[in-house]
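Schema walkthrough. Field components (list of strings):
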Amino acid sequence: MEEKIIGGMGGAGICGIISICICVVFFTSTFLWAFSLKKNYLNHMEDLPLDGGEKNSKDKNQPTKL
Amino acid sequence: MNTNIETFKYDNRIVRAFAIATVVWGIVGMLVGLLAAVELFFPGANLNFQFITFGRIRPLHTNAVIFAFVGNGMFMGIYYSLQRLCKARMFSDFISWFHFWGWQSIIVAAAVTLPMGLTTSKEYAELEWPIKIAIAIVWVAFAVNLFGTIVKRREKHMYVAIWFYIATVVTVAVLHITNSMTMPAGWFKSYSMYAGVQDALVQWWYGHNAVAFFLTTPYLGLMYYFLPKAANRPIFSYRLSIIHFWALIFLYIWAGPHHLLYTALPDWAQSLGMVFSLMLIAPSWGGMLNGLLTLRGVWDKVRQDPVLKFMVVAVTAYGMATLEGPVMAIKTVNSLSHYTDWTIAHAHGGALGWNGFLTFSMLYYLFPRLYKTNLWSTKLANYHFWLGLLGMMFYIIPIYVAGITEGLMWKQFNKDGFLQYPNFLETIIQVVPMFRLRAIGGMLYILGVLMMAYNLYRTAKAGKFESDTEAQAAPLEKTPAVAHGKLSWHRMLEGKPMFFTVLAIVSILVGGLVEIIPMFLVRENVPTIASVHPYTPLEVLGRDIYIREGCLGCHSQMIRPFRSETERYGEYSKAGEFIYDHPFLWGSERKGPDLAREGGKYPAAWHYNHMDDPRSVSPGSIMPRYSWLLTQNLETDTLPWKLSALRRIGVPYPAGYENGPAQKDLQEQAEKVVADLKLGGVNTDPNKEIIALIGYLQRLGTDIKSAPVTTAAK
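Field assembly_structure (string):
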């Protein structure tokens, strides 16, 4: 049935089926991977841009003239 | 745990150099765009000066804003953020400066060669082969500097922004090399190795992904760094950023064929392009929401801080453009939007909003920090914001109206079943007022940029430049510590940059290979037509003039299989008609009619007069004059190189044809054109450029007019 649906997609044929299969596998793996990550690791990664290691960093209190 | 704290310095001079280049080239590129916009409603704006005609400066504008403005902006942001995310100075100061001066030299080379008409004609890849080689060398230097810095980093983990930078570096290299396969025919002339349909697929695989990996992924990396910095709070969801990254780089590469819907490209490739374009909405909007939700709780700051203001509009424009793009990739929508100004509006929504505003926000963020002072005038920055936003609206909205008007008028039939607007010119005259409004919008946008340049200059004058920022961090331990529990596969992966890079390359290659390999290997994709034969020597030279003048910037050569198109232009285009087209010249927009079946439509004298003064034969036409073609002599010395180069890439000219017989054939055909012109009351020499161009135009589409169509496997 899948072949019938995708095959009707303007001559997609076997190429379309293979492409969709590759995508399903890729996305499933990515989601599983992302959701298996530990919270403390994610917290550490989120904080990385905020700590540039600079001495006398002004980034925590930005010198914006309002 | 390592307790040895190292003190080191971040290089700010290279960041400042790229920042200045961003502002300077931004102004130049936008002014060239403004001139091009004015020429669309005032064709005499080039003062009959061939080097600044629309066809020649349009690629100059696109190259300047993409590679000079956004390119330098990208390098500015990457050189600043990469050092801080890696807690390391750039790998090599020498390479940094080689990269900087190499890139600026390439921009200057483009600014000289494109107005001279030295172009490959392939959109966003117009630069000729010696400059392409220089781009490859400079890009490799950038890659070495980037990976060198990552390798010597003091931070164990690679933040997601670095992933986007890595994907950019490797994918742009792959795209550039694949699409630059050309056969030189002189120092500044080359022919694409691919022909016709295959060339079109490779070009738009490149063109689409140049947008993806030059204008999008590096800027997403910059968003993931600068937005949390400016808001002073972490990104909304790091988990979402991981999905965003892998889904985006995997999907983007498949969507290229949506630029070729309803063309002679095989159906299966078009369908893949459409489906994958729709799927792109998910990761793109994931990224946009991740950016906007980072601001939860600090929206009051957005009202006051110009940096955040520009960022919010930039991220919103990214979301709008990445929703609109997939919608335009739906075949039904595309049948209306393609070749119209809708595409131009879409492109500028992304360029002015996403790239432009994010670049401005980074500049407003960086200058006070580099010069250790406050921004000279927040008020002026706010004026810039509103002027830029207004300029964008004035630019985009009229062009949307123009695009939809064009699409509808081209397709409109009257009650008797004939085209309502059979003369293409009627449809253009209708939208000329929109072109005027668009130029006003562009002017406002540029005015805002000039205000920013002044503001940044005064900020720099008021402060003291800090060429090196001192920083401290512990060196990276040789063996990975298990700081957060069990070492996961993901953390191992992003701890190994080279392995990570290989995975990223595999992700981007899958889509490209699935599309491109069948196109080259399956014969049925390009059925040949027995009556299609190579261009004659005169037509080859005429075609090169067509390329030099950038005619394909306004004229397509691809009739889609719609009744509205076949009624207007003739039989729809077949893949087999283009097998000797190195490069393909299908074009991507129509400011003038399609020329695929132009041959024999008008007498030679009509073309002569039309080139001399288009309004003398088509009152109201917006085409510029090409009177220099009537006086300049045709360059025939290069013909042997050209024919020989074309034969090497598969055009079946007989061996030795270029040494004598070709010149004789050229003279004979030129004399015929001169005789045709005489019939129309025009007397001219056979050695003028106009003769070759007329020879080429009169050939277009005649192969399948002159003989019955027969298809056979190649």
